[in-house]
Write a structure and sequence with these properties.
- The complex is a heterodimer.
- By secondary structure, chain A is an alpha+beta fold.
- Chain A has 3 domains: about 110 residues, DNA Polymerase III, Chain A, domain 2, CATH 3.10.150.10; about 120 residues, DNA Polymerase III, subunit A, domain 2 (DNA Polymerase III, Chain A, domain 2, Roll); about 120 residues, DNA Polymerase III, Chain A, domain 2 (Roll), CATH 3.10.150.10.
- In chain A, the strands form 4 sheets. Chain A has a 9-stranded antiparallel sheet.
- The longest helix of chain A has 13 residues.
- By secondary structure, chain B is α/β, with parallel strands linked by helices.
- Chain B folds into 2 domains: about 200 residues, 3-Layer(aba) Sandwich (Rossmann fold), CATH 3.40.50.300; about 160 residues, no CATH class.
- Chain B contains 16 helices and 7 strands.
- A 5-stranded parallel sheet of chain B has the order 2-5-6-1-7, sandwiched between helices. Chain B has a two-stranded antiparallel sheet with strand order 3-4.
- In chain B, helix 2 runs antiparallel to helix 3 and helix 11 packs across helix 16.
- The termini of chain B are far apart.
- Classes of the chains: A alpha+beta, B alpha/beta.
């Protein structure tokens, strides 16, 4: 392999695959990245076996070939090289890197040692845009569980239907669901995807760029421009989330989003570090927030709202409310309630263009 | 370095291969049997057989799956073994540190599969490791249809009687195993597994490795000069681990435990009580439970050798060099078959006490006093010593 590449292109490629290189692994070769000199470009690939990223950057290829090299060291070298064309050439299982007057030689491993990338049938793919993917992912990936006891909840449920696409995530205490129209149609699929892979998708596909998506039995593949991302699917079944979304919440509250956010944030200051519990008192035109934490103190605040329904006293984890409010883009939000021990829903209100986003939060038991 | 070739267990392997090829291999299996006979190696062999691209009676050794498996690098074969608990501030950190430690240990085993790990704390399977198993099992395989978990010394999921958390978390996986998962557990103390786990896992007994196979292994690995191989193979008594310990302990051919076992026997045969009390006094009063158990096992081996000589079958003695010493005990000291058999009983009871953490000095002092009475009834004057 003999390649000449600009320092910027080298850094760009390395930056794109860096996120897929594991910091720890039971397979030593995974701390390497795969460099493949192809016609007119250099392909860089990395994988932690859960997510694999491959990106092609422009380069002048004199002699084709492939090698795997220690990713971290190559990144550090690329960062420190002077702004000059970088030469990469291999001798056996080593690579020499030259830039300006600097010369390095890194020991690598043969391409054969690197795990094969999954084969995903892109000829049967469906297409979407980077923007759509970003909209879906950003609204739900925060709600994924980080608990290890139920690995299925560590993933995002992605439902593809002929005319719409939906993502759902929950940790059992709060849930986020977004549905958007599917611009290009396509097959029906139910997938459970790890949010780390979706973060890579968010990072590497943007704007109106067309992204092809296809699945094999075990993997999901994304392809757009010069980037490919593959992720290992999480094995189902995902819990039936529709069952927990309340349909008969009869108390409706409409509030100004920024006013509500500010009040919850202030109450959270004096809430317990363990439970983050705050109390909401509903009934009439003013909603009352209050918090009492033994050994610390108390706080209260009032916010003008529109409220329909019987008076209600209900407790919530302030952090969960704030998280959900962050993903609402409209000026007003609608919350619905049934009883102090039943789930509340929160959704945007007022903007026709706002995505169909619904979130749900379980209340906390009030002590008195 | 590739994994050394598997030796022994021919019948078990043939039966397992038949089950794999007829698609009747269970989703989980327990390989149990004496320590050091290669149960985990057999587990890895099954994993390779399940993953092999050829449908043969043995892993073909040539396909991509087999080559990765032999290098312990197959992305869908996960080998978990007990590790010492690292210091960590949170369950998440503990899981990460245990995975780091597993990666380091795997790398060490790849570099030198014959060397035993040495830990400064007692190793176990912790809840955090089982969480990693659960996470891996929730994913689809990297390639193909299957994922295999080999879990060595599975009884250490319950490191102490009061800590069954890891075993209970693992039980959940066994209760609802994800499709395409195979769990291979190994244990030399299957009775220490949770009954709820044992009842869910079909078990197969793995016996000791024939002397000839251990000789072959030593020849292939070229770890010791050719003239020592037969002797080590004989002394190993069917345990690959013991053979390797004999290799590392040097050309003398007696490992530390065997020496300690001989010293205990000589103390029991000594004329005066000073030697017996000295042998008891030489050990630490606490914290040496595992050492004492191994030494008592070695003493039992010496007693079996003594029994062979006393019953007129010196050719059955493990170490031919020891025959003259044993013969002297029988001919000159009057050791009789019945006495040796009672002695073996006593060692077995002492071993149980050692496992219950009784003071090793007391165990040894009492055992040697009674052993002397069993072995040398004619010379024993009374129980006052």
């Amino acid at each position: 392999m003999k390649v000449s590449i600009t320092r910027e292109k080298l850094q760009e490629g390395l930056g794109a695959v860096a996120g897929s290189i594991p910091t720890r692994s039971t397979l030593p070769v995974l701390s390497n990245l795969l460099l493949e000199a192809e016609e007119g470009g250099l392909r860089m690939s990395g994988t932690d076996l859960d997510t694999a990223v491959s990106v092609r950057v422009a380069a002048e290829v004199e002699v084709g070939g492939a090698i795997t090299v220690p990713a971290k060291k190559l990144q550090e070298i690329a960062r420190e090289l002077p702004p000059a064309p970088v030469g990469l050439s291999t001798q056996g299982d080593a690579i020499s890197i030259t830039g300006g007057r600097s010369r390095f030689r890194l020991n690598g491993l043969s391409k054969d040692e690197f795990p094969a990338f999954p084969s995903v049938p892109f000829e049967e793919s469906w297409t979407t845009t980077g923007r759509e993917l970003n909209q879906l992912i950003s609204h739900v990936s925060f709600a994924v569980s980080t608990e290890e006891t139920r690995p299925i909840l560590n993933g995002v449920k992605w439902e593809l239907r002929p005319d719409e696409t939906r993502m759902v995530a929950t940790n059992g205490h709060r849930l986020a669901k977004i549905t958007i129209a599917r611009s290009s149609g396509g097959a029906e699929e139910d997938l459970i995807v790890h949010p780390r892979a979706l973060q890579q998708v968010q990072k590497l596909f943007g704007g109106d760029e067309e992204v092809q998506i296809a699945r094999s039995e075990n993997h999901l593949g994304f392809r757009g421009g010069s980037v490919q991302i593959f992720t290992r699917l999480i094995e189902g079944p995902y819990p039936d989330y529709e069952q927990v979304i309340p349909k008969d919440n009869d108390k409706v509250l409409i509030a100004d989003r920024s006013g509500l956010t500010g009040a919850v944030r202030r109450m959270a200051i004096v809430a317990s570090d363990q439970t983050h519990r705050i109390r909401l008192s509903l009934g009439g035109p003013m909603m009352k927030f209050s918090v009492q934490t033994p050994d610390l103190g108390e706080g209260s605040e009032e916010l003008p709202v529109e409220y329909e329904g019987e008076p209600l006293e209900i407790g919530f984890n302030a952090n969960y409310l704030l998280e959900l409010l962050r993903y609402v883009s409209t000026d007003e939000v609608k919350l619905t309630f049934k009883a102090p021990e039943r789930a509340a829903t929160l959704e945007p209100l007022g903007n026709e263009d706002a995505p169909d986003f619904l979130s749900l939060v379980m209340p906390l038991r009030l002590q008195d | 370095m590739a994994l050394p070739a598997i030796h022994g267990h021919a019948e078990v392997r043939a039966a397992l291969a038949r089950a794999v090829r007829s698609s009747t291999f269970p989703q989980s299996i327990l390989l149990h049997g004496p320590e050091g006979v290669g149960k985990e190696r057999l587990g890895l062999w099954i994993a390779m057989l399940l993953m092999c691209e050829q449908e043969l009676e043995e892993p073909c050794g040539r396909c991509a799956s087999c080559r990765l498996g032999e290098r312990l690098e197959h992305p869908d074969v996960h080998w978990f073994f007990p590790l010492p608990r690292p210091d960590a501030s949170s369950p998440g950190k503990l899981r990460e540190k245990l995975e780091d430690a597993r990666a380091v240990e795997l790398q060490r085993r790849r570099a030198n599969p014959f060397q035993e790990p040495e830990y400064d704390r007692a190793p176990a399977h912790f809840l955090a490791s089982i969480r990693t198993v659960q996470r891996l099992a929730s994913l689809r395989p990297t390639s193909g249809q299957r994922m295999v978990f080999v879990i060595g010394d599975a009884e250490l999921m319950v490191p102490q009687e009061s800590s069954p958390e890891a075993a209970n978390a693992f039980l959940k996986l066994l209760e609802e195993p994800p499709a395409g998962m195979t769990f291979i557990l190994t244990s030399s103390q299957p009775g220490a597994l949770l009954p709820t786990i044992r009842s869910r896992v079909p078990s197969i007994r793995v016996t000791s490795v024939p002397e000839r196979e251990i000789h072959d292994l030593l020849t292939e690995a070229d770890l010791v000069p050719a003239d020592q191989r037969a002797r080590i193979a004989r002394l190993s008594r069917g345990s690959v681990r013991r053979a390797l310990r004999l290799v590392t302990s040097g050309a003398g051919g007696l490992d530390a435990d065997r020496k300690a076992g001989r010293d205990l026997l000589l103390a029991a045969l000594a004329n005066d009580s000073t030697a017996r009390l000295g042998a008891a006094h030489d050990r630490r009063p606490a914290g040496a439970r595992n050492d004492l158990v191994s030494q008592l096992d070695a003493l039992a081996e010496w007693l079996r050798d003594l029994l062979a000589v006393a019953s007129g079958a010196p050719e059955r003695v493990t170490d031919p060099d020891a025959v003259p010493m044993l013969a002297r005990a029988v001919d000159q000291r009057g050791v009789a078959v019945q006495g040796v058999m009672e002695g073996l009983e006593r060692v077995s009871r002492a071993r149980e006490l050692a496992q219950y953490n009784v003071n090793p000095q007391l165990i040894v002092a009492d055992l040697l006093r009674k052993l002397q009475r069993d072995l040398l009834p004619a010379t024993t004057t009374g129980g006052s010593t």
